[in-house]
Request: fold
Amino acid sequence: MAIGTQQDSDDMLSEINMIPFIDVMLVLLIIFIITVPVIKHAVNIELPQASMEKVQDKPENIRLSVDADGVYFWNDQRVEDADFANRLTAAASMEPQPELHIRGDKAVRYERVAQAMAAAQRSGVRKIGFITEPAP
Reply:
């Protein structure tokens, strides 16, 4: 057998040299080990904590209008004085309780608005507000 024959060269070419691949993989592993902690702790942020409390839906407000003649309107529907107290009691028993927004005509006697407020207080309505228009 002579050195450098055709059969010896075929044997050498059939083997894959894994050393360069291992070197590349080790270099990449070192790069990732160094850069991951830098990326992870680049910005310290405190994230908000979610609560498991049930969000209550706010009920629709009650619009009570008093026209110039002293007639009550419950959400734009005319209501008689006898039925007015019953509606206030029903609204006061709701959970959560709706707000009562009173809109009084400027020509109405204050007595009718005061009667509505007193009836609301007697029935247990806790939130009463007045709706006005801004001055020009």
